[in-house]
């Protein structure tokens, strides 16, 4: 079945460590997104990519980095510069060509906890 | 800049009662509007979406929403709530011209009393 796979589902990190969250999709979607979710704040956009080897900062990119070397993969690195990294991270993707209906498809999320 | 407001952080309804979740948006152009549902620790599932045309939109699981341009609202409704509807609901606004980026409201957590 087509979908978006995020891993790991749970991740614990010590302060000062970088961690990388994986996001893979087999939907043949062009665009991919990373959102951060905190209680009561909805979802906030971290980074997005509309084509391979290109990506743009979202509203809260500081302390995060991404790469888009393959169409199906969009990993997110949470660096030690991120002051408050404990959150639920959601990856999403969408088709942007003809027939685009604007909706995003989401993975199951990764919960990062800094100890 | 676009924004979405969901005024109710928590709502509790009895099973079988009707439900309305409020959503107000601010967007300069004609918006695309969405409602998503999220179970605890899970991703988001699309309930319904509005692009154009009929302002009353039907979705999955018996939900519907009505787009009211004059009120900048897109409220979600269900005539009879089931215990399995307990979840968090997010309203979102976006546009294809904006690279499909969606702006989300803060969410409304729905609890269902037996």
Provide a brief overview of the structure.
In chain A, 0% of the residues lie in helices and 49% in strands. Chain A has strands spanning 4-7, 10-13, 19-25, 31-37, 43-51, 54-57, 64-66, 76-78, 87-94, 105-106, 110-114. Helix content of chain B is 0%, strand content 52%.
Keywords for this entry:
heterodimer; A: 115 residues; mainly beta; 7-stranded mixed β-sheet; 4-stranded antiparallel β-sheet; 49% strand; globular; B: 114 residues; 6-stranded mixed β-sheet; 52% strand
Describe the structure.
The complex is a heterodimer of chains A (115) and B (114). In chain A, 0% of the residues lie in helices and 49% in strands. Chain A is built from no helices and eleven strands. In chain A, strands 2, 4, 5, 6, 9, 10 and 11 form a seven-stranded mixed beta sheet that branches. In chain A, strands 1-3-8-7 form a four-stranded antiparallel beta sheet, with no helix packed on it. In chain A, β5 and β6 (54-57) form a beta hairpin. Chain B has 114 residues and is mainly beta. In chain B, the strands form three sheets. In chain B, strands 2, 5, 6, 10, 11 and 12 form a six-stranded mixed beta sheet that branches. Chain B has a four-stranded antiparallel beta sheet with strand order 3-9-8-7, with no helix packed on it. In chain B, strands 1-4 form a two-stranded antiparallel sheet. The radius of gyration of chain B is 14 Å and the shape is globular. The mean pLDDT of chain B is 92. The chains are: A mainly beta (115), B mainly beta (114). Chain A binds chain B through residues 4, 6, 31, 33, 35, 40-45, 48, 50, 58, 88, 90, 92, 94, 96, 100-109, 111, and chain B through 4, 6, 9, 32, 34, 36, 41-46, 49, 51, 90, 94-96, 99-102, 104-107.
């Amino acid at each position: 079945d087509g979908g978006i796979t995020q891993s790991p589902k749970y991740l614990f990190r010590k302060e000062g460590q970088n961690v990388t969250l994986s996001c893979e999709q087999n939907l043949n979607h062009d665009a991919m997104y990373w959102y951060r979710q905190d209680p009561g704040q909805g979802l906030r956009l971290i980074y997005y990519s509309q084509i391979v080897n290109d990506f743009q900062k979202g509203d809260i990119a500081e302390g995060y980095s991404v790469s888009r070397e393959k169409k199906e993969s969009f990993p997110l690195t949470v660096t030690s510069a991120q002051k408050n990294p404990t959150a639920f991270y959601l990856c999403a993707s969408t088709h942007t060509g003809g027939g685009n209906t604007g909706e995003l498809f989401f993975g199951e999320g990764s919960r990062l906890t800094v100890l | 800049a676009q924004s979405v407001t969901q005024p109710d952080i928590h709502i509790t309804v009895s099973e079988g009662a009707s439900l309305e979740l409020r959503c107000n948006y601010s967007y300069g152009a004609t918006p695309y509007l969405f409602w998503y549902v999220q179970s605890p620790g899970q991703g988001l599932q699309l309930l319904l979406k509005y692009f154009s045309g009929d302002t009353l939109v039907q979705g999955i699981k018996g939900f519907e929403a009505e787009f009211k341009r004059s009120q900048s609202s897109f409220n979600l409704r269900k005539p009879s709530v089931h215990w399995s509807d307990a979840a968090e609901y997010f309203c979102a606004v976006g546009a294809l011209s904006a690279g499909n980026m969606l702006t989300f409201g803060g969410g409304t957590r729905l609890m269902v009393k037996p």
